[in-house]
Description:
By secondary structure, this protein is mainly beta.
Amino acid sequence: xxxxxxxxxxxxxxxxxxxxxxxxxxxxxxxxxxxxxxxxxxxxxxxxxxxxxxxxxxxxxxxxxxxxxxxxxxxxxxxxxxxxxxxxxxxxxxxxxxxxxxxxxxxxxxxxxxxxxxxxxxxxxxxxxxxxxxxxxxxxxxxxxxxxxxxxxxxxxxxxxxxxxxxxxxxxxxxxxxxxxxxxxxxxxxxxxxxxxxxxxxxxxxxxxxxxxxxxxxxxxxxxxxxxxxxxxxxxxxxxxxxxxxxxxxxxxxxxxxxxxxxxxxxxxxxxxxxxxxxxxxxxxxxxxxxxxxxxxxxxxxxxxxxxxxxxxxxxxxxxxxxxxxxxxxxxxxxxxxxxxxxxxxxxxxxxxxxxxxxxxxxxxxxxxxxxxxxxxxxxxxxxxxxxxxxxxxxxxxxxxxxxxxxxxxxxxxxxxxxxxxxxxxxxxxxxxxxxxxxxxxxxxxxxxxxxxxxxxxxxxxxxxxxxxxxxxxxxxxxxxxxxxxxxxxxxxxxxxxxxxxxxxxxxxxxxxxxxxxxxxxxxxxxxxxxxxxxxxxxxxxxxxxxxxxxxxxxxxxxxxxxxxxxxxxxxxxxxxxxxxxxxxxxxxxxxxxxxxxxxxxxxxxxxxxxxxxxxxxxxxxxxxxxxxxxxxxxxxxxxxxxxxxxxxxxxxxxxxxxxxxxxxxxxxxxxxxxxxxxxxxxxxxxxxxxxxxxxxxxxxxxxxxxxx
Length: 709
Ligand code: CA
Ligand code: CA
Ligand code: CA
Ligand code: CA
Ligand code: CA
Ligand code: CA
């Protein structure tokens, strides 16, 4: 096949449409001087016409439904256009329209690129495309130099519905790779890509209801925003992180209320630098490309596409791709590429526009080469849960605060006790199975201590804040049945309007057992001493103080006598836990200029040897966790996030309220201790809330904490 003619005449182009099966070629119209297009004003009625830089035709009845551009890092002028063509397969073209090859093993309607995917110890580029016959996603490894494609999935990643859009996303937070697949059932599926036996595999992490007609999408890897078009409705944006809220906002509408004529399909992003960039949307049927600011979604103007010798250049723009890096001398600021379903007389195909021309017409910025070469933002340290508990029995924000009980003789039989603030306390084993539900009221926080003497026996006492009875709930753990038994001396009143945060303290100095609890919004704390009364446990108030504003998470250090309190909007404080201590406190960290983002929630202590160890704090506003040294001035160590474990099908944790940690080995599953956190969004599949269990060695390794004890 030959295709390098530069003749602008339609006749000539048609004359070349012989040759192999699908495809074909081209007319490359070298745009002599893009600066000549000068920005006529771009009123909505008369968008500036941008001449195509190159056209690639596909012979009918083939379709050109989506497109992507791979930039050849060694020689950008030898970059590769990837076209999805359900009848012809996945096609590869050079920038001048020459067909380079492709794959006929699938019938793709959508295509997207993944850069720098780690596979078999190498960093490779992947082409992802759907196969309409299997409703699956197939990954191809792009050979170095863009010379060919080889299948990288062992089997298609099955979406079980027709795919109406596909876009890849590498999380700037975790470095994880995802692909979003919209389906004809009106859902947006988010798949995490992971290596499975040397091949690319996918784990479904969440499904977002998005509406019928939704499909074409693009994700901004700088800020994690996902853009998706809903054909006759408009353009939406929402957060691309799997654990984020699925709330979406409109960017623009079709019809009289918006700036899109009737229908919108392909979208693409053009990044200028870390702070500036553009959202590009193909206004189908009106031969128009709309441009919006990425910062505030403001509409900046539109351009139309002009083919020499052809009245309406863009018949039906479907897929859209953009590259904000140089593609060689003739495309120094990158390019925009349309998949034109109908094409201009010569049939469907792909149209390439120089960004220079669009930028000139609309007075837009060109990408800064340095911004694109500066590499990716450093990713956050991440760990993965290996167990998740059963979901709780109530919908909404229900699970809240866990406490770990260590079995005295068989650590693998240890328990997780979790509050469920709509019902009571839940007891789970280390596999996450629910062993006991105690429907004693709206329990908010829970903590426990070992070795309380009750009728000549040393028992573990569990304390919880009961918002229904406005009381202090007390239980002991029966190590034989592994169940909680109520031991409170009746209903122990707190005097609080709304009992909220709670933690316990076993004083090394006095041997006494204490409970701290606070009222929800005032930050008023009370401290009680626990006293045995026959076979029951009573509480005597020993201290009262005020933190200042709403607080909840707290933890007392039994060895040092420190009491850590998280004031949700403000930061982390260190008080003294002894009842004789005053109100003096030390600020450990802050939400203003510190390492925390409101709300600051759960706090727990990892006890190491000789007074060392760590504080683990739920940094809820950032969906991650902050770690501090237990000793000295509680120096900040680092942040980590809990991300999905795709192999085990367990989602990550986000919007965490309470957490607990132990340094005691808990059998083969948790040989170096355990971190348990509440998960605000239990997804994949969507379910009621639960708790996630993370082996401590993952945290130690993610933050280079040194060998676990
Ligand atoms: Ca919550
Ligand atoms: Ca707790
Ligand atoms: Ca809270
Ligand atoms: Ca909160
Ligand atoms: Ca989750
Ligand atoms: Ca889950």
